[in-house]
Amino acid sequence: MKERKTFLQIEDTYSLRGIAMLMIIIGHTYNGYPADNPQYVFPHWLEYLHIDLWGGMGVGIFLFLSGYGLCYTLSRRQHIDSRYLLSKVQRLFEPFLIYWIVEIIVLLIFDRQALSTHIFREIFTLSIHPDVENWFFKVILLLYVFTLALFRCRIGNALRIAILFAVCVAGLMMMKQAGMGQWWYNNLLCFPIGALVAYRYDAFAKLPPLAVCAVSGAMMLALLGIHMNTIVFHLCFVACSIYAIRLVNIHNRWLYYIGFNSFIFYFIECPVMDEIMLFAYPNYPAFCILSLLGTFILSAVCIRGNKEIKRYFNH
């Protein structure tokens, strides 16, 4: 295998996002699946793949790449203007608005009784129907706002990264103490670590990828016999992933497409799984495959439609 010339090459990072998004969709199809129900088709060998953790593993990659990309860009900009801020707001909220348009249309077709004034509460609390805590979106929003505020302050990058770490560690401890679900905090440190890698890019680029993959992979295997769903496990998976893409060429136009439009895929999977493909739920393999295909097709339609709308108004 030939080592990549550059560390975290942009084409590979978007393809890695695409892989992470596929892991999240598959993980969401698996979570809560009643494998013990004799009326459901569920190959029990799937349990050995620990698919229930794939969603969290994919989120860890997203948080790392978000922290890395945001801080890499901000640390190299002379100032943060309103146009840049507007582009960030648009990139975050546009997929959420597209999701709700699609969700209402899908409910009109599949479940009209769910269309009530309660929908507005879900929209304005940034939730996902039906009353799903949209935790990832809210965490990303808070991290982006706080990071942008840090870069508006006239302090050094080292101090910014230290403050970001301190806030994330404090948030992690508070969430854990409050008894919130592990998904709220298991991957939280991936964001400031991504920021640290952006700040000390040259130092991390010099690390031998094969050695990093070997050490992090060994630690992940060791945790198999203890408890996989831990902060250390997810950090090791992220480390292994970002250095493995220096050894293996994962650049692929379909993965790049999914990764570049990952927020839309993240939201559109919900109406696909919860309403459109729900008929296939008793057969897990069919439900999983149809959810993947349905999410890709509907997301592609939304992306194309959004581009056409923008083109129309720009003219």
Point out poorly predicted stretches.
none
Rg from Cα:
20 Å
Shape: globular
Report the span from N to C terminus. 48 Å
Order of helices and strands: HHHHHHHHHHHHH
The DSSP helix count reads 13
Give the fraction of residues assigned to helices.
55-70%
How much of the sequence lies in strands comes to under 5%
Number of strands: 0
Task: Provide the structure class.
Answer: mainly alpha
Question: What are the main properties of this structure?
Answer:
13 helices, 0% strand, 315 residues, mainly alpha
Describe the structure in your own words.
The protein has 315 residues and is mostly helical. The chain contains 13 helices and no strands. It has helices at 10-30, 54-74, 82-110, 118-124, 135-152, 157-177, 190-199, 201-205, 209-224, 231-244, 253-260, 262-276, 284-314. Helix 1 (10-30) runs parallel beside helix 12, helix 6 runs antiparallel to helix 7 and helix 9 packs antiparallel against helix 10 (231-244). The radius of gyration is 20 Å and the shape is globular. The N and C termini lie far apart (48 Å).
